[in-house]
Amino acid sequence: MDFALPADLVAYLAELDAFIEREIKPLEAADDNIRFLDHRREWARTDWDAGGLPRAEWEALLGEVRRRADAAGHLRFPLPAEFGGRDGSNLWMAVIREHFAAKGLGLHNDLQNEHSIVANFPQVLMFRDFGTPAQQREFIGGMLDGTRRLPFGLTEPEHGSDATFMETRGVRDGDGWRIDGEKMWTTGMHVATHVMLFARTSGEDGDARGITCFLVPADAPGVKVEEYLWTFNMPTDHPRVSFNGVRVDDGAIFGREGEGLAVAQHFVHENRIRQAASSLGAADYCVRESVAYAKTRKPFGKPLAANQAIQFPLVELATQIEMLRLLIRKTAWEMDAMTKPEVATRLSDKVSMCNYWANRLVCEAADTAMQVHGGIGYSRHKPFEHIYRHHRRYRITEGSEEIQQRKVAAWLFGFAGPGREGG
Q: Domain spans of the chain?
């Protein structure tokens, strides 16, 4: 068995590092852009007078970063070559995301906005696999050039993980559909052109079939942003949106009628393994920064690092990081050897293991880093509070850790998966 990273992947990491030093670091230093990353970051990013939305200057800066990354050939890296990408694999993306997060805060990678110089673009692949030719023509190029933006309308005020019980309804109305309901956490609605809106069109509550995905124009009559939900980590672009008497035609159906959950779950495993890798990298950053600080800080005349009360928590974190890194890379490597349906039926439990444990680990690492650094660690002059507040959300989103533990348990005890009893 060879655990060494491929030589061409190592070379690509060096290429990305050189791009960051050449293009991104100077941009951070220009025009006081560092205000978006230093102790002023939450204030600088948030337009408090506009309901807590991201400031236009912040989003424009992220847009400039993406433009530069795209011009350099990095932004679309994981996409197929037909869309201008490099066919980046799950293993490569996991290693890249860990590498970026391990650098700490920077314009190269700011996951509070799901922003990175090597982007994800899951919806492009959704349109490739589920879109009609007309939808592909409109949306794939539009998403790549920024003229089409589509938030995800799945979660509801009374329903999150239990998506099959959603109350939003789509009913036949003449030669089209009428949609009524309400969605939560419709992230990005303030800049949306359309919404990927999920509604029950047939069947009963709890049925996996009977839910349809519609592409609804964001400015359609009956679409209303009710409020933007302020969160643990501001700014917010996460609104509650109502849909009252919204009318669309059959051309708005995305994927097959009644099979919308297949659309919703299309990219879940790729998202989870990449998210896990980011959390792993951020945890590694917290530990390394804490070790460096403990070696230089000398209360009572000796380094903090001489105290086992400081050493042992960091030792445990470092050990978990090493073990989790192997599991994430092994799982990503196995994903690359399977089709997407095979991943769902043969490897889903391992992806969930990686995701929920990494997201929990980074929160523990950030909390420990704050403790090791003392008062300055609690302040916003260090990045640990920001890392904690951002990554804490990952223990809820993309499938809560309880949902993912339930997945692992179902496979472990034979209720689902390859070892299903009676299957």
A: 7-121, 152-259, 267-412
